[in-house]
Design a protein that fits this description.
This protein is an alpha/beta fold and about 230 residues long. Helix content is about 40%, strand content about 20%. It contains eight helices and eleven strands. The protein binds calcium ion (CA).
Length: about 230
């Protein structure tokens, strides 16, 4: 699940990014409305946490423009608990509203509730061959056996499975799962793939994660002979 935070206060932005990442989400944080709208309309996000008072263009204008093309759920953040603001936000198509200062636990509960609402029922399980990933219960099974995953392993497997058959460069994996940029050391990706293989491939006859030399990794069902 990917969340975009549009928040110009560094302290709040950092706090939200850290908290939501720890809760298992992949989080991007931008600090002005123009960049926020650009990110929100060019990338895929499951939820946007949008501050109202922003440099560039304010939260109202961001959601107004965004709603012309996308239905991405939006949780508004505002400094004032003003009924007028709340009504305006909801009229413009926000899904929920929180006044600052907010309690992180409450924000997280609302984020989860919005994401549950927005998640189509049929998309809660991904399957490739005999490997299944239950997104709601955050659980993987292969041949009916439960595989315990850390939250990063879950995010990694989820990425590989939802883009099954597609060769994913290390840099793409690094940015999607760890939120690291392209210049970062991608050894962390190789190490995580190794750990994931121990869990989902090693005990089984058919391998699903394949290394594509010089390019990256792909998860797909192949003939046993070349796996
Ligand atoms: Ca602000």
């Amino acid at each position: 699940m990917r969340i975009l935070i549009v928040e110009d206060e560094p302290k709040t932005g950092k706090y939200l990014q850290k908290g939501l990442s720890e809760a298992g989400y992949v989080v991007d944080w931008v600090e002005d409305g123009v960049t926020g709208l650009h990110q929100a309309s060019t990338e895929h996000y499951d939820l946007i946490v949008l501050d109202v008072m922003l440099p560039g263009r304010d939260g109202w204008s961001v959601i107004e423009a965004l709603r012309r093309e996308r239905a991405t759920p939006v949780l508004f953040l505002t400094a004032r608990d003003d009924v007028g603001d709340r009504v305006k936000g909801l009229e413009l198509g926000a899904d929920d509203y929180m006044a600052k200062p907010f309690d992180f636990v409450e924000l997280l509960a609302r984020v989860r509730s919005i994401l549950r609402r927005g998640q189509p029922r049929e998309a809660t399980t991904l399957s490739v061959a005999d490997l299944h990933l239950d997104l709601t219960r955050r659980k993987a099974t292969r041949q009916g056996k439960t595989i315990l995953l850390t939250s990063k392993e879950f995010s990694l497997l989820w990425l590989l499975m939802r883009r099954s058959g597609e060769i994913l460069p290390r840099a793409t994996i690094a940015s999607q799962v760890w939120d690291m940029n392209f210049s970062s050391d991608t050894n962390v990706v190789d190490a995580a793939i190794r750990r994931l293989r121990v869990k989902i491939d090693d005990p089984y006859e058919t391998r699903l994660i394949h290394t594509v030399r010089g390019m990256g990794y792909v998860l797909e069902e192949r003939d046993a002979i070349d796996s």
